[in-house]
């Protein structure tokens, strides 16, 4: 059955690919873009079923009116793909508080505001599917991406909690964590903080050089990511968390193993902090 999608960030990359796949499957798609030029290009994909809206997620007061405008043109939003965001690369010490605030303003606050704009309607209609595009960096970490990965870890936690709250209303929620795809994430969509502390040169300079060289060369195929979203949409019991890409599977598995190794090695200490008088557990 044809559904109405809202996909944020459809100018390029995964958002664009997901939108193309949804349109090809017969769905209606409202997409957000950053410029009027991108809006025209998106509408040209399918003049009948594609609508474009210029929106910057950092402008929180424009998010709900944009959602209402999309619904006025295409009908109630049945599927949200909260994809828009950007990357920030820089060591923790060299990145500023302004960098951190901007990263969370777009990746976290803008995404959450978009979800909040569509959720009441889905709850009232007792149905809908919310996809939040996070990152393998929402499950594991790499040097030079502390603020970006912090934003994606935040989205994973928020999404997981939301899923537990709204499943009773027939609203499905899935956090989608891609690995490296053939997109411009490491190019145009990655803000690089200027270097200033020489002590990090040996660690970080090779990492930055490698990321620059591999921009757009990831193993993941954006069109196949679009197909994956449609598969999840049709699933009887879709997951709350899913990884896209063999690199994401490998790196997240290794990262979670490191965390579990710490838990296991210090299990005795963890247990030692329980009260000797007993008490009530959380669950």
Automatic annotation (TrEMBL):
Q: Which InterPro entries match?
A: NAD(P)-bd_dom_sf, SDR_fam, SDR_oxidoreductase
One Pfam family name is adh_short
Q: Under the GO molecular function aspect, what terms does this record hold?
A: oxidoreductase activity
Which Gene3D superfamilies does the entry link to? NAD(P)-binding Rossmann-like Domain
Among SUPFAM superfamilies, the record links this protein to: NAD(P)-binding Rossmann-fold domains
> Oxidoreductase: is it a keyword of this entry?
yes
Can you tell me which residues the record assigns to a coiled coil?
Answer: none
Could you list this entry's UniProt keywords, alphabetically sorted.
Oxidoreductase
Top-rank taxon of the source lineage equals: Bacteria
- Similarity comment: family membership: Belongs to the short-chain dehydrogenases/reductases (SDR) family.
Protein name, as recorded: SDR family NAD(P)-dependent oxidoreductase
Please tell me the species this chain comes from.
Amycolatopsis rhizosphaerae
């Amino acid at each position: 059955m044809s559904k109405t999608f809202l996909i944020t960030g459809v100018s390029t990359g995964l958002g664009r690919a997901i939108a193309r796949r949804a349109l090809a499957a017969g769905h209606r798609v409202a997409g957000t873009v950053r410029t009027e030029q991108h809006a025209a290009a998106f509408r040209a994909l399918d003049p009948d079923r594609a609508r474009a809206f210029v929106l910057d997620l950092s402008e929180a007061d424009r998010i709900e009116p944009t959602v209402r405008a999309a619904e006025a043109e295409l009908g109630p939003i049945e599927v949200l793909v909260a994809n828009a965001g950007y990357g920030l690369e820089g060591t923790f010490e060299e990145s500023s508080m302004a960098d951190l605030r901007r990263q969370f303003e777009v990746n976290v606050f803008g995404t959450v505001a978009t979800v909040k704009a569509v959720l009441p309607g889905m709850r009232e209609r007792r149905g809908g599917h919310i996809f939040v595009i996070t990152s393998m960096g929402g499950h594991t970490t790499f040097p030079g991406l502390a603020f970006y990965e912090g934003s994606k870890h935040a989205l994973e936690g928020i999404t997981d909690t939301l899923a537990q709250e709204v499943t009773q209303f027939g609203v499905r929620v899935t956090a989608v964590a891609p690995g490296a795809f053939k997109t411009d994430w490491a190019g145009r969509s990655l803000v690089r903080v200027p270097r200033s502390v020489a002590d990090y040169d040996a660690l970080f300079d090779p990492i930055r050089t490698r990321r620059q060289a591999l921009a757009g060369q990831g193993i993941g195929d954006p069109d196949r990511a679009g197909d994956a979203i449609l598969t999840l949409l049709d699933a009887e019991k879709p997951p709350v968390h899913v990884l896209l890409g063999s690199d994401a599977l490998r790196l997240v598995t290794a990262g979670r193993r490191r965390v579990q190794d710490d838990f296991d090695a210090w299990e005795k200490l963890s247990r030692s902090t329980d009260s000797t008088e007993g008490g009530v557990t959380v669950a």
